Amino acid sequence: MPFSIRNMLLLSSMILLPAASAVAQGAPPPPPVTVAKPVVRDVVDNDEFIGRFEPVDEVSVRSRVGGYLQEVHFTDGAVVKEGDLLFVIDQRPFITALNESNAALEVAKSTQTYAEAQFKRAESLATSGSQSVSTLDDRRREWISAQANVRGAQATADRAALDMDYTKITAPLSGRIDRRLISIGNLVQADQSILTTIVSLDPIDFYFDVDERRLLNFADTARRKGQVLQQGGGGVDVTVTISDPNAKPFMGKLDFAENRIDNQSGTIRLRARFANPDLVLQPGLFGRIQVAASNTYKAVLVPDEAIGSDQNERVVYVVGTDGKVSTMPVRPGPRLYGYRVIREGLDGTETIVVNGLMRVRPGATITPKMTELPQERRDTPPDSAVTESGQ
């Protein structure tokens, strides 16, 4: 019996020692968590579309006269200026035609001079009664006919000189020229044979299609500027990015919209114009264009890592004045300057958990470590769906 009592006392002391040790040490402190205020700034929503660059002007170079191609004066793919010599058609037949027409003009002028002298002589004789009136009329008719012949010969000579000029084919506009499509020695058909093409490069146009709903947003933005979308595109500022990750966005303006919506697709085609002094943008190049689709408003921005999930909802963890954490459902929007736009759920005055979400639970108490979020984070590229107001 005494042995059993000793065992029971020993066992009781072994059970009570860990509990006493735990009480002596105390409960663990609340976990430290990084918190901050959301970033609030003025933004304008943008819509993004895919489109293609097209030249403002494009021309197929043809010859106005027929003949055999004799000379080519450009390098395939070069940038040419308006008036640069491109091709020369064999000029020898045209030189002969010009000489012949000039000779005919000289004969016509000589005939005119003789007819004029004959008329004046007949007029003098008719005045003195030595020449009949009918003869005077004949001389007048011959002189008038000679004048007409001179005008006809002059027109023929001018046409021959013009054809001679047309044997030298020059660039009708400045831009990049294509390869030559006809080799030297081939017969060129007047107004038919395409010798090459030229496209203008600066400025350059960007065409894209938008649906009815977003078209109304663009039209409203244009109206607030006192403009009409169909008249010059409303002058709405736009940016376009290309596939080169190192290329900065290009700034331009809407300058044209078609006058009706397509019945089948329910879309309308818009055009934006961009300056292209460095000739980086090329016709046919794809790009992504961002067009302002809202008025300026205050946006609440939070880091992506501050947004968690609660079943089918997106939430952020809000810290109260007592250090307790609660969840707040939010509706995320597009990205901007490394942050996520919060459409609904926050007004920007809250203190939210921005780092350490795995260590917090709703209703739990934390040790907040306050930090200030920068206006822009460079670690994440800005999203093209939203731009800062005024840019």
From TrEMBL:
<feature type="domain" description="Multidrug resistance protein MdtA-like C-terminal permuted SH3">
    <location>
        <begin position="299"/>
        <end position="358"/>
    </location>
</feature>
<dbReference type="InterPro" id="IPR006143">
    <property type="entry name" value="RND_pump_MFP"/>
</dbReference>
<feature type="domain" description="Multidrug resistance protein MdtA-like barrel-sandwich hybrid">
    <location>
        <begin position="58"/>
        <end position="194"/>
    </location>
</feature>
<keyword id="KW-0732">Signal</keyword>
<dbReference type="Pfam" id="PF25917">
    <property type="entry name" value="BSH_RND"/>
</dbReference>
<dbReference type="GO" id="GO:0046677">
    <property type="term" value="P:response to antibiotic"/>
</dbReference>
<feature type="domain" description="Multidrug resistance protein MdtA-like beta-barrel">
    <location>
        <begin position="231"/>
        <end position="292"/>
    </location>
</feature>
<protein>
    <submittedName>
        <fullName>RND family efflux transporter MFP subunit</fullName>
    </submittedName>
</protein>
<dbReference type="InterPro" id="IPR058627">
    <property type="entry name" value="MdtA-like_C"/>
</dbReference>
<dbReference type="Pfam" id="PF25944">
    <property type="entry name" value="Beta-barrel_RND"/>
</dbReference>
<dbReference type="GO" id="GO:0005886">
    <property type="term" value="C:plasma membrane"/>
</dbReference>
<dbReference type="GO" id="GO:0030313">
    <property type="term" value="C:cell envelope"/>
</dbReference>
<feature type="signal peptide">
    <location>
        <begin position="1"/>
        <end position="24"/>
    </location>
</feature>
<dbReference type="InterPro" id="IPR058626">
    <property type="entry name" value="MdtA-like_b-barrel"/>
</dbReference>
<dbReference type="InterPro" id="IPR058625">
    <property type="entry name" value="MdtA-like_BSH"/>
</dbReference>
<dbReference type="GO" id="GO:0022857">
    <property type="term" value="F:transmembrane transporter activity"/>
</dbReference>
<comment type="similarity">
    <text>Belongs to the membrane fusion protein (MFP) (TC 8.A.1) family.</text>
</comment>
<feature type="region of interest" description="Disordered">
    <location>
        <begin position="365"/>
        <end position="391"/>
    </location>
</feature>
<dbReference type="Pfam" id="PF25967">
    <property type="entry name" value="RND-MFP_C"/>
</dbReference>
